[in-house]
Amino acid sequence: MALFYFALGCALMLGLGAALGSLSNLADSPLFGWGLLVLGGGLFAYSWVMPTRRRAPRRPASFRTVSMIGLGLATGLLEAGTALPYLGAIGIMSTAGLSASTWIPVLAAYNLVMVLPPVLLYLGHRVFGEHLRPRLDRWREKIDAGSRETLSWIIGIVGLILLVHGLQQVGVIDVIDSLNP
């Protein structure tokens, strides 16, 4: 994950953002608005029917290195657009006009800090083994207790935001506003 985010940060610092900016015309098209409308409506509706009861924890089918790298890359791709502090830091560095010898170590340090907590948990597990397991199991249970309901709320909120934005983009909200005196 750290390598993925470091590579993403370097690509953005080297101009990927400007290249993607040329695609902004596509985001203003009515077809994109209809896509947002359908996606947002689907997410909002799913948030109401989504099962929130606790289920047995799912375990990965394979712990092979290739599987774990694939999982990390997929997670990074899905999460990259919501890494707002990271994207904000990259925006600040790119507008500051820093040299590569300055921003590369800053990006590396940011990514190191990002992965440090799970690395420390893993090392603690390797060093203390079974002595640490009961505490980690209690933490996992606390986190799992409300995660499904929280996820339902998040999906509903994101769906509503996409739905409203899609309605604005296709012009439905403008029509509704013009009908009100």
Strand content: under 5%
Strand segment count? 0
Number of domains: 1
Helix content: over 70%
Overall form: flat
Tell me the Rg in angstroms: 21 Å
**SS summary, helix count:** 8
Quote the average pLDDT.
Answer: 80
Sequence stretches where pLDDT stays below 50 over 5 or more residues: none
Largest sheet, strands/sense/barrel: none
**First CA to last CA: what distance?**
53 Å
Order of helical and strand elements: HHHHHHHH
| Structural class by sheet pairing and helices | mainly alpha
Helix and strand layout, with pairings?
Layout: H1 2-21, H2 24-27, H3 30-49, H4 65-79, H5 84-96, H6 100-128, H7 133-170, H8 172-179
Helix pairs in contact: 1-6, 3-7
What does this entry look like structurally?
Helix content is 81%, strand content 0%. It is flat, with a radius of gyration of 21 Å. It has one domain. The chain is an all-alpha fold and 181 residues long. It contains eight helices and no strands.
What attributes characterize this protein structure?
flat, mainly alpha
Concise summary:
By secondary structure, this protein is mainly α.
